[in-house]
Amino acid sequence: MDSADPAAVWMTLSGLMGRPESDADVRAAREAVLRNAGTQDLINRLPDWESDLDVSGHNSPQYAPNLLLLLSQMGVRGGDDDRVERILDQMLAHQDGDSRFHSFGRSGHGSIGRLPEPAWGGLLCDSHAVLEVLIRFGRAGDPRTRAGMARMVQDLTNTAQGTAWPCRPHSISGFRGPGRKADFCPQVTLEALRALARLPGEATPPATADAVRTVVAAWRRRGSEKPYMFGHGYRFKTVKWPAFWYDVHAVLDSVADYPEAWASATDGHETRQAIAEMAACLIAYNFGPDGRVIPRSCYKGFEAFSFGQKKRPSAFATAKLAGVLKRLEPLADGIAAVDVRSLTSSKGGSGTAVPPR
Fold it and tell me: Which of 119, 222, 226, 301 has a Cα-to-Cα distance from 41 of 20 to 30 A?
């Protein structure tokens, strides 16, 4: 609350203290977020969605949905800025006959599966990422968004790991994405779970809880199975800032919205235990003894933000991770009981993990 970062103040008031959007202090904090130079810098980074988006991959901090996700986490909302509204309009304008959203560029992951020339097309990690930000910024009622969400629900299927969302072939190149054809995609599945959880006033499909369990089971199977490009070792446990890609924070941030998947006394024990273990790792690998987060891993280009500095505590990062733990408060006793040093290592790991301090 004493931070000069208005986004940290806003997250503390709303996410930790539970004050409503109508609260005077919450409104004042959000107004300060919109005036903040850092917020304006991030909005200015938003690209023209209809130009060649030649980014290194969907995990790039330059990828527009990732920037929009960060702005949403900071408190920016639909109607706050014309530059945000413009790119949302552009996103809505590019949807295929199956109601999946596309991006313009060479796509692929890094140099893999890239087109020789930029074109409109997409993988599910395009469509789901676009859908999530459309909902976060108030476009859930648009018929195109609703059609996209209906397609998202239809794409939920049985994978080798359980009910989840798989990689689907790129609509132009046919590139399917990394991993085996029958596997689920952790990133695509988390994007879908976050989007579905934010649909206003609507119940999520019953199978969504099964997808939550599939995501959590990937942690339980970490010693014998590793989703291609999505491991569960040190990098998974140590959040990279700004936080928008698959890691322990992203998993917990997604599953916290679905207590029905882990609250059951009869069939939720394994899921609860796995969530408790991941939450204990989130604390051990990211929080210091004083309860504050010093970012240990950062993307380049965010040095002006507290979450882009590796040597000082970040009020933003602290509020963000503490807000996730707050939503898991029913599991507090189980989290506290976890001995992180006794957890088995991930597939390919070299031994017992020792949290950094």
Answer: 119
**Whole-structure pTM value:** 0.93
Tell me how far CA of residue 177 lies from CA of 107, 124, 151, 327, in angstroms: 10, 9, 19, 32
* Average confidence (pLDDT) over 70-99: 96
What 56-60 contacts at long range (C-beta under 8 Å, 24+ apart), as own/partner pairs, is 56/110, 57/108, 57/109, 57/110, 58/109, 58/123, 58/125, 58/126, 58/129, 58/187, 59/187, 59/244, 59/245
Residue 124: pLDDT over 80: yes
Sorting pLDDT into bands at 50, 70 and 90, what band is 73? very high
What is the rounded distance in angstroms from the CA atom of residue 5 to the CA atom of residue 349? 38
pLDDT band of 111, cuts 50, 70, 90: very low
- Would you state the pLDDT for residue 175? 61
Q: Which of 285, 347, 344, 270 is nearest to 317 (CA)?
A: 285
Q: Mean of the pLDDT values across residues 322-329?
A: 96
